[in-house]
Amino acid sequence: MEFRVLSAEDRAAVTSLFADVFTNEPWNDDWSDTEQLDAYIADLTGQSYSLTLGYYDGDRLAALSMGYIKHWYSGTEYCIDEFCVGRPYQGRGVGSAFLREIESYLRERNICQIFLQTENDVPAYAFYKRRGFQELEGHVSFGKRIDGI
User: pTM of the full predicted structure?
Assistant: First the structure.
């Protein structure tokens, strides 16, 4: 497996892997609106502070992390918006190996923390807990749907 920093040239592989993982169990997201999907991937990968990382098996993208760098009072963070492992690679240690590579990459750049959010009723929750991630006490996520849209 090969760890890589991804760029705009990798967008097709990123989009393909993302859609394949998140339109299936346990997520079942509806990404059938390809314009919305393309805009979402562009939002995550196309900013000056974006950091998109991949883990390749030969020429096949096996795992993906999309996020951004945030300079915070306690040090620079990598905020992961999306992390996924291709379905054929799940349960084979690829996600764990990829996270170790990410941590090594961040350590070399003095990025001291990873921040991410997930749902507590999906397998990702236990995956992150087993890899040393801790729930942040007092941290609450809010959302509000805009009526009429």
Answer: 0.90
